[in-house]
Amino acid sequence: MATTSTPAPVNPASLPRPSGYSHGTLAGNTLHLGGQTALDKGMEIVPGGIVEQFRQAFGNVLATLSEAGGIPEDLVSVTIYLTDIPDYQAHGKEIGAVWRELAGPVYPAMAGIGVTALWQSEAMIEIAGVAVIPDERLACPAQS
Questions:
Q1: Which residues, in sequence order, are CB contacts of 138 under 8 Å at separation 6+?
Q2: Phi, psi of 63, rounded to the nearest 5 degrees
Q3: Tens digit of pLDDT for each residue in 46-61?
């Protein structure tokens, strides 16, 4: 697929239907991944604490990446926003295992940032990122 410079929204059907935002925006080969909390398809934050919220939020990021033809190795930057940094650190090994399960042993540039609150009051984590997808895998999603 030839790249274009016109930004295109990327909104996988597996994620909650966006209203007033896009899950991702593809510009050329660069996919900007909008912040994902641990929302499931039913628009509920998954229960179970920071590890399960990480699994859902990162899974949502990867679903958007996949919709555009990307794979985890295409991630160049990930930013994790946390309402409780010590809780995240206390579960670091478990979270690392979830990362490797979902994305393998590849780690992009990353930042962890403490915040006082996220959009959904029960959300403990939000993950955003940027990926660069090679032409041979790039897929411009259908517009809805």
A1: 1, 3, 26, 29, 68, 69
A2: -65, -40
A3: 999 999 999 999 999 9
Site of tokens 């897929």: 139
| Cβ pair 63, 12 in contact under 8 A | yes
**What are the contacts of 1-4 at 24+ separation with CB within 8 A?**
1/135, 1/138, 1/139, 1/140, 2/135, 3/28, 3/29, 3/135, 3/138, 4/28, 4/140
Say if CB 123 and CB 38 are below 8 A apart: yes
Q: Among 88, 78, 82, which Cα is nearest to 116's?
A: 82
The 10 Å Cβ neighbour count of residue 75 is 24
Q: Please check whether residue 82 is in contact with residue 88, taking contact to mean a CB–CB distance below 8 angstroms.
A: yes
Q: pTM for this one?
A: 0.93
Q: What single-letter DSSP state applies at residue 86?
A: H
d(Cα 39, Cα 53) in Å, to the nearest integer? Answer: 8
